Amino acid sequence: MIIDAHVHLSTYTGKGNFLEGCLDVLLGEMKQNGIDYAIVIPDNIEDDPKIAHLENTLELIKKTNKLFALGSPQIIQRGSSEVDKYRRLLKGGAIKGLKLFSGHDPYYPNDDRCLSYYELLQELDYPVVIHTGDHSSNPNITDPLKYNDPKYIVEIAKKYPKLKVIITHYYWPKIEYCYEVTKDVPNIYFEIAGLADDEVIKASGGIEKIKEVLKKTIKDRYNKVIFGTDWPLCDFDGKSGFAYHIELVKSLGLSPDIEKMIFSQNAISVYNIKR
Ligand SMILES: [Zn+2]
């Protein structure tokens, strides 16, 4: 079984004309690539018809039992005022955790406005996923790495030792640095979306470098690395981002048991997914 813990519903890369069409393309490509379930991350931008935000994500995924969703608090627009809303959604089972977009939006993971979300997640035992790396959808942010440096994420993980803190995109291109600063923090997890993208590979020192860092992360923390892709991004040369990410994991030479943990078991336990 394969669970992809990081997809979006977005028509920006030509996958469907409308979000409903994009949902069909997603389910079709999942089937083709042997992906059984996926977690849809709603975007932090709410007024764009080309990408699903929280409300339309929750509406769209009702049509299938293959998809789960996260929530995405609007820290800049609404600060910590959405805690009650997310408490209801988490308790009701509509979402499986929260994603914070530090670097897409101009705030740091240790911003005071984020803290009540961490407290909520720690209490209910759901994870936070934190965007990292050198990409921002916000044209006013020229240095996203300034905002999502894992040193701030370590600070949060230590402040909330029972909170499951998931770093997505491995703070590319500084993957070695990210490995080093996080390696002794037991409640930090990694979700690997984007690491098979050609731009990310080139900027991060090549595919062998990415494989080396992933291998040593899995050696230290085999129960803390989670499969993800960032679909519909990361397609190139006519091949799906799903296929590239599956190939990346398979190329690591893992034992069948560990491979199974990366592809599905770790996501099931971290996101409390019940089948
Ligand atoms: Zn993403």
TrEMBL record:
<dbReference type="GO" id="GO:0016787">
    <property type="term" value="F:hydrolase activity"/>
</dbReference>
<feature type="domain" description="Amidohydrolase-related">
    <location>
        <begin position="79"/>
        <end position="272"/>
    </location>
</feature>
<dbReference type="Pfam" id="PF04909">
    <property type="entry name" value="Amidohydro_2"/>
</dbReference>
<dbReference type="InterPro" id="IPR032466">
    <property type="entry name" value="Metal_Hydrolase"/>
</dbReference>
<protein>
    <recommendedName>
        <fullName>Amidohydrolase-related domain-containing protein</fullName>
    </recommendedName>
</protein>
<keyword id="KW-0456">Lyase</keyword>
<dbReference type="InterPro" id="IPR006680">
    <property type="entry name" value="Amidohydro-rel"/>
</dbReference>
<dbReference type="GO" id="GO:0016831">
    <property type="term" value="F:carboxy-lyase activity"/>
</dbReference>
<dbReference type="InterPro" id="IPR032465">
    <property type="entry name" value="ACMSD"/>
</dbReference>
